[in-house]
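Hi, here's the filled form for the chain we discussed.

Project: internal
Contact: R.S.
Residues: 286
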Amino acid sequence: MTSTRHRIRVGHSPDPDDAFMFYALARDKIDTGDYDFEHELVDIETLNRRAFSGELELTAVSLHGYAHLTELYMLCPCGASMGDRYGPMVVAPTEMTLEELREKTIAVPGTLTTAYLSLRLCLDKDFSYVVVPFDEIIACVSAGHFQGKPVDAGLIIHEGQLTYAEQNLHMLVDMGQWWYEETQLPLPLGANAVRKDLGAEVISDVNRLLKASIQYGLDHRNDALEYALQYGRDLDRAKADTFVGMYVNDWTLDFGERGREAVKKLLQRGFDAGVIPEKIDPEFVE
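And the returned structure, exactly as it came back:
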């Protein structure tokens, strides 16, 4: 009697922390039983948009993106990227106050990213923005324009948080630190979401294997980091190690009570501000 194979298409970002998380699954380091994982590496805003069609069984999503996807996906309790007093940053060639920033044009990595939502909450108003691929934001801020449009500042995510100073840019606000001062909670940036129609057994298995992959990476840090370095864009090993440590840690193994509270608070504040259209009660895999 042959067992049924399950094809699980996985979408995640081409950056070191996601690569570290998925190392064991991508390199067949753990026994996945009847599950075949196929990996697609795509920037987070594209994954947010693709998730509207439910194309992927397991996908990284921004928590802001998840707010629009609750009919199709539920959150895995593992796989979170949490900014614990750090996170996306707004950078600019010159220093300026938040009041001044409110009147500037800001390059953002996508309007479904949690980075965008948190900045919208921080500035407490609609602001002028240009959507720019996340790995081009630092360059366009330095140049002062993107595709002919003026750019005064940029909202950076991923490894740009460690490299922006090399381009003589100034950090104006750190969204993770701002959020902590507001709430005393970490900023829940990204998560892994699994498609609801897979059924309880498959959902449970996929969540279990995802957690096993994260744990394997943490237990075999050097090997997982070596794999992740190929997605490090200008990061040396030390900086890549720092970056992975920022976003793959105890929070990643489980949101925990405070992490879940942070998700609820973020989505509630997004709704209260009119950025998220419906009140969302996040649903986690049990």
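Let me know if anything looks off before we file it.
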